[in-house]
Amino acid sequence: MTVHSGERIAAFLFGFFAYCFFEIALRGYTHWTMGLLGGTALSVLSGISLLREPQTVKALLGALFVTSAEFTVGVFDNLIMGWQVWDYSDRPFNFLGQICPLFSGLWFLLCLIGLRVCRLMHRRYALSP
Which of 59, 62, 102, 123 is the most buried (most CB within 10 A)? Predict the structure, then answer.
C-alpha cells in the first residue's frame, strides 16, 4: 500500500498549519521553519502509519523521526543561523540545547494523535481497509 500524492500534500498542509497553531497556542509565536517541520513530520508519519506494526511502535518511529528532524533543523536554525527559534539548554539531558527526552516524549504522544489523523486521511483517499 502506498500513500496517494494528494494525501501526501494534504498531510503536509495539515501538519504545517496544525503545528504552527499548536505552537502559537502554547508559546504565543512560531517560526516558518516549524511549519515546514510539522508538515514534513505528518507526511512521513502518513507513510509510517501504513506499516503493519502496533500503534505504539509506529508512534515511536514517528517520534524518532521528529526528534532527528528537530535536531537537524535546530542545528541549522539555532546554531548556524542564530535565529533562536528554541533552546532546550535548561532541560535535563538535552543535547546541544536542540533536543531533549521531555520533548521526544511529547513527540511520541503527538504521533499517537497524528496516526489517527493519518488513518482518517487514508480512509478519505480509500487506501485503508
Answer: 62
Q: What would the DSSP string read from start to end of 9-29?
A: HHHHHHHHHHHHHHHHHHHS-
- Single-letter residue type at 57: V
Domain count, the chain: 1
53 is a domain residue: yes
pLDDT score for 81: 98
pLDDT at residue 129, rounded to an integer: 46
* Contact partners, residue 4, CB within 8 Å, separation at least 6: 125, 127
The verdict on residue 129 lying in a domain is no
Taking only the tens place, the pLDDT of each residue in 54-98 is 999 999 999 999 999 999 999 999 999 999 999 999 999 999 999
Three cell numbers at 105? 516524549
Cβ burial, residue 52 (10 Å; 0-12/13-18/19+): exposed
How many other C-beta atoms can be found within 10 angstroms of the C-beta atom of residue 9?
A: 12
CA gap 104, 64 in Å, rounded: 8
